[in-house]
Amino acid sequence: MVQYNFKKITVVPNGKQFIDIILSRTQRQTPTVVHKGYKINRLRQFYMRKVKYTQTNFHEKLSTIIEEFPRLEQIHPFYGDLLHVLYNKDHYKLALGQVNTARNLISKIAKDYVKLLKYGDSLYRCKCLKVAALGRMCTVVKRITPSLAYLEQIRQHMARLPSIDPNTRTVLICGYPNVGKSSFMNKVTRADVDVQPYAFTTKSLFVGHTDYEYLRYQVIDTPGILDRPFEDRNIIEMCSITALAHLRAAVLFFLDISGSCGYTIAQQAALFHSIKSLFMNKPLVIVCNKTDLMPMENISEEDRKLVEEMKAEAMKTAMGASEEQVLLTMSTLTEEGVMSVKNAACSRLLDQRVEAKMKSKKINDHLNKFHVAMPKPRDNIERLPCIPQAILDARAKEATEMEKRKTEKDLEEENGGAGVYSASLRKHYILKHDEWKDDIMPEILDGHNVADFIDPDILLRLEELEREEELRLAEVAEDEIETDGEELSVEQKNQLAAIRKKKACLIREHRLKKTVAQNRSTVPRKFDKDKKYTTKRMGRELSALGLDPSSAVDRARSKSRGRKRDRSEDRGNDAMDVDDEEQANKKQRVRSKSRSMSISRSMSRPPAHEVVPGDGFKDSTQKKAALKIGNTSHKKRDKNARKGEADRTIPTLRPKHLFSGKRGKGKTDRR
Amino acid sequence: MAQGDYMDEHKKKYGRRFDHDERERKKKARDVHKHSKMAQKSIGIKGKMIAKKNYSEKALMKRTLKMHEESLSRRKADENVDEGALPAYLIDREKTSRAKVLSNTIKQKRKEKAGKWEVPLPKVRPVAEEEMFRVIRSGKRKTKQWKRMVTKATFVGPGFTRKPPKYERFIRPSGLRFTKAHVTHPELKCTFCLEIIGIKKNPNGPMYTSLGVMTRGTIIEVNVSELGLVTPSGKVVWGKYAQVTNNPELDGCINAVLLV
Ligand SMILES: Nc1nc2c(ncn2[C@@H]2O[C@H](COP(=O)(O)OP(=O)(O)OP(=O)(O)O)[C@@H](O)[C@H]2O)c(=O)[nH]1
Ligand SMILES: [Mg+2]
């Protein structure tokens, strides 16, 4: 969505500043030293550069002006009209048009002079041409000085326009001057609008924000409108009219029933009827203000009739709202009814917006996107939450305990109140025995400070010492039992040797594998020339370990894919000899491996192209199309698989051409 | 006061600091000194710019002072009545100054007949041939030097076609050809961008005239049909002479004064 922020437009310098900026930049950013003796080409180049540089700078600056100022046709009609009311569209367009023409003229001048500079035959001539070129460009800018000044003024004013978002939920307050519009605004929002007891206190639109049911509403205070022909209305009133005409908002029409604003109810009713075409298709609330001065019941019979008339008019477009939501009374002084007015306006606006959204064409796109799961009951059994009895008991106990626990304050109350009761500080000491709590602890004993002799973890240390001693004793006992290796029999010795040999063998093998593995990828089994990992070998080795290999072998066989039917029938060799099959099934084996590596699909998940509610797709064809588009979008990128910035690279740390030989007077990157 | 006018709003809510006026006054008083310090300190283009601005301000100030003095000092009112003064009852009558126009045209006719022009620039600096032409070397070994290129602004007629380049003696580069001139009407005191019809005379010699070279002082003929000048006999004037007053090759444009 377009955000309307006119605060970001850059400052438009006035004509003189503009020229100063550009010329001093040319002076600073282009070379300044030339001599007569230079080659003519160099001289021409020097001055051409100045001319071109100046032109580009002018072009850039003027372009930013043209681009940053909003085009009145392209922004929201509300802003378009507001800007037209405030600054006059024709004038605005003319100013921008002049800037545009100046830009083109400057480009043309630069082009002409660059062409002429090509024929320059002396420093003097080139310089004269440059001076003429810059002078003419500056003259062009000087001519648009008034336009620039005008644009700058507009920029400053636009930056201070309230930031109204024309598309959000909006509540619009309108009515005669001095009826209490701004007072209401101050009550429901934090916008600090001026309130004074005279007409036209508010001279422009004011915006504030308020909350209703966790949604934010934008409240707009408008200047008062008088009942007069459209052409006679001044700029201040036209602001209100613009807002009324273009914002799709809830409208609060304020009526001052006490007449203290200086206008009778009849006048206000006339205004209502003259601008009622602006209330079309908008939730309209008629608010009778200042009931503290004149209660609704006290107004005269004719006035009542007028109010009823207005109410009837408003009910026509009420779209099913009740009467209480169309005509409300309030007093901003006593704050009576203020909230109900706000709530009525907000709720009616919300209803209308939801309804409009439901009617719109895009509603299906929105509905596809969300899904509220409504689980169907499986059967009629009621499944209540199950809380174990133990927990319930614990909870009950906790509750009673919570109740029972006496605070220090309760104790104080019981024992005579403040000043009489003195709380015991020792009560909560954590000691081994409770009776120790009240013990009297001496500080000095036999002329020594007791604290000096206290070691808080003496018991721990004692325990440690005891443990150590135990260990020592055990060691001594063990020493007596242990004997040397002489006790082993010959057979045992052999076994030990065999174990050690095997261990060494394994370690060596592992080391060998490790050195190789570091810089070589794992070789696929297809190329495993040694045919080391066979069932036969497994059986052999297992039986060597004294285990029964049959079950392991069976398992391996069951895991391996059964042989497919061969092409030649007469090769009906049914033996499940895995070792022999390699030749015949090389291809299949490879394929089976690749298949085993593909992601296994969960059966509980629907296939990718099937529409899940809340996905945002109409049907599966649409989803399929979207998936396809998504896949093709990165196909090219994937295919190229170029080196990206995320890839690790090691640059050439010492490029040869920079580290060999001597450095001459030439370039630094060549030797 | 609009909502975004935070400066005004703040002023309105909290007022000004108690010594605001005093500070403002002091700041203003200091400003002069600050400015002068800056003016003395800055050098180069910045210094020049400041000096120029100061000078113009000073001149303006003097002029206004003088004007005030004039209004104060008593002077005798002018007694002599202007020549063309009319009594009030005749003022809204249409008057004709035909006589003057007639005499003007007669004068011009006479001048033309005498073949002598009284022009705004009676004398110009003669331009040497080396300055006017650049030698172009030609031939396979670049030894031949009979070709020349005109280095000044030129005018060629609309239907102009070059001679075969091989034999072209004088080259008039297309980048230096001009078709329009900024012509000032000395009596109307305004300038028009007019089309050039032809070269009447170049003060440096007939050869340059025939080549269409425009230097300072050259008399050119311009198309004044846009101006809507009318001869005494009621015909619309089409071509008129004008004299070039600047160096077109240095300025990149032709400025001329209409000869009336
Ligand atoms: N007694 C009474 N006075 C009110 C009430 N509401 C507003 N006023 C007074 O009416 C006067 C005008 O109030 P504003 O809120 O400035 O009126 P407005 O409609 O914004 O006026 P403009 O901005 O000039 O169009 C102020 O003096 C308020 O104190 C009300 O409910 N009761
Ligand atoms: Mg107000």
Fill in the keyword field for this structure.
heterodimer; A: 671 residues; mainly alpha; 6-stranded mixed sheet; two-stranded antiparallel ribbon; 8 strands; extended; B: 260 residues; alpha+beta; Thrombin, subunit H; 5-stranded mixed beta barrel; 3-stranded mixed sheet; 35% helix; 20% strand; binds guanosine-5'-triphosphate; binds magnesium ion
How are the elements arranged and paired?
The complex is a heterodimer of chains A (671) and B (260).
Chain A: H1 15-29, H2 40-68, H3 77-87, H4 89-117, H5 123-143, H6 145-159, E1 170-175, H7 181-188, E2 206-212, E3 215-221, H8 235-246, E4 250-256, H9 265-274, E5 284-289, H10 301-316, E6 327-329, H11 338-359, H12 363-369, H13 389-404, H14 408-414, E7 444-445, E8 448-449, H15 458-481, H16 490-518, H17 535-544, H18 550-559, H19 586-597, H20 620-633, H21 635-640, H22 656-659
Parallel strand pairs in A: 1-3, 1-4, 4-5, 5-6
Antiparallel strand pairs in A: 2-3, 7-8
Chain B: H1 6-14, H2 20-41, H3 44-72, H4 98-114, H5 129-132, E1 133-138, E2 144-150, E3 153-154, E4 170-171, E5 180-185, E6 190-201, H6 206-211, E7 213-214, E8 219-223, E9 239-244, H7 248-251, E10 255-258
Parallel strand pairs in B: 2-4, 5-10
Antiparallel strand pairs in B: 1-2, 3-7, 5-6, 6-8, 8-9, 9-10
The complex binds guanosine-5'-triphosphate and magnesium ion (MG).
Magnesium ion binds at residues 181-182, 193, 201-202 of chain A.
Subcellular location (chain B): Nucleus, Nucleolus
Organism (chain B): Thlaspi arvense (Field penny-cress)
Keywords (chain B): Nucleus, Ribonucleoprotein, Ribosome biogenesis, rRNA processing
